[in-house]
Amino acid sequence: MMRRVLLFIISITVLGLTGCHLNNENLVIKSFHHPNGVYFCQEKVSSEINILNPMKNEKEVWVEFEIKDNSDNQIDSSIQKETISSEKETHVALDWTIPVDFKSGSYKTEIIVWDKSPENSDAKEIAQSVDQKGFLIFKSQDDFNELDGNVWLVSEGNLGRSELKSENVTLNNGLLSIEMPQNTLNGGEIYSKELKDYGAFETRMKLPDAPSSITGFFLYKAPDYFYEIDIEVYNQSDGNLMLTTYSDGEKKNVYSGNLDFDPTKDFHDYRIEYQKDHVAFYIDNIFIQSWSDGFPKEGMYLMINCWYPKWLDGEKPKENQYLLVDWIRF
């Protein structure tokens, strides 16, 4: 069953402000709080600031709340006037409704406190809180309670040493399962029915233990070598990782390394962030690599597969092995 979700995970770094006076205003920011968790489009999420006014007179401030993408472009903002009561701490709520068409990807927040409306040329910035770690937004998440034919298609055909068979793609207790049958080199693959534009794409999966095969989570459109952005992991305990982009008929960028865990033992998160000015890769929300050129600039299909490439030995598994996918977000 498809459900629309937004992942909103925020970690705020306050640049020397919490518990400090705001310039000469004699106000003290006691704390910043920011939302985390999962939100749906058009839901309201809230941040807050607690400001102490030790003086006998009320003070007025203007609070600006900005949403920026990870290229530091401002996406949305709001400004609200607040009266800070005398000789007490005032709670200031900052509410933001997530637009229905918000693009998936990484974002960050910035909160600025002004002595007057920032629309005035003489307004002074008296405090600032910058979000350093950022948060993620996804429009949709598929939990694979069913294989929705309006969203996913199953491949049939040959790839490398493998025959991709639809019978190897099944659902099991809310997991997508791609079987690599014993004593064969067969595998399986699904791909999105529609082309995917810029955004973030993430899956949580546990790999099969089938040496000389690989699992791919990637964006692709024919012909080969023109439109492709790959995460590929060897299906074995040492966690060999390959990140690749193809454009203009050739391989443009390559990264290879080893994961610091056995990908066949447990579920882990793998993410591609595909934006106009860069492509970036994350494993378990940890940044691995990014490139600012050498990647395609057109929509591609989102795909996930298990198969045996010709450039590996082609060792047949002695027992059935399975790629298990908990969810895919995009």
TrEMBL record:
<feature type="active site" description="Nucleophile">
    <location>
        <position position="228"/>
    </location>
</feature>
<feature type="domain" description="GH16">
    <location>
        <begin position="130"/>
        <end position="330"/>
    </location>
</feature>
<dbReference type="InterPro" id="IPR000757">
    <property type="entry name" value="Beta-glucanase-like"/>
</dbReference>
<feature type="active site" description="Proton donor">
    <location>
        <position position="232"/>
    </location>
</feature>
<dbReference type="Pfam" id="PF00722">
    <property type="entry name" value="Glyco_hydro_16"/>
</dbReference>
<dbReference type="GO" id="GO:0042972">
    <property type="term" value="F:licheninase activity"/>
</dbReference>
<dbReference type="InterPro" id="IPR044791">
    <property type="entry name" value="Beta-glucanase/XTH"/>
</dbReference>
<protein>
    <recommendedName>
        <fullName>Beta-glucanase</fullName>
        <ecNumber>3.2.1.73</ecNumber>
    </recommendedName>
</protein>
<dbReference type="InterPro" id="IPR013320">
    <property type="entry name" value="ConA-like_dom_sf"/>
</dbReference>
<dbReference type="InterPro" id="IPR008264">
    <property type="entry name" value="Beta_glucanase"/>
</dbReference>
<dbReference type="GO" id="GO:0005975">
    <property type="term" value="P:carbohydrate metabolic process"/>
</dbReference>
<keyword id="KW-0378">Hydrolase</keyword>
<keyword id="KW-0326">Glycosidase</keyword>
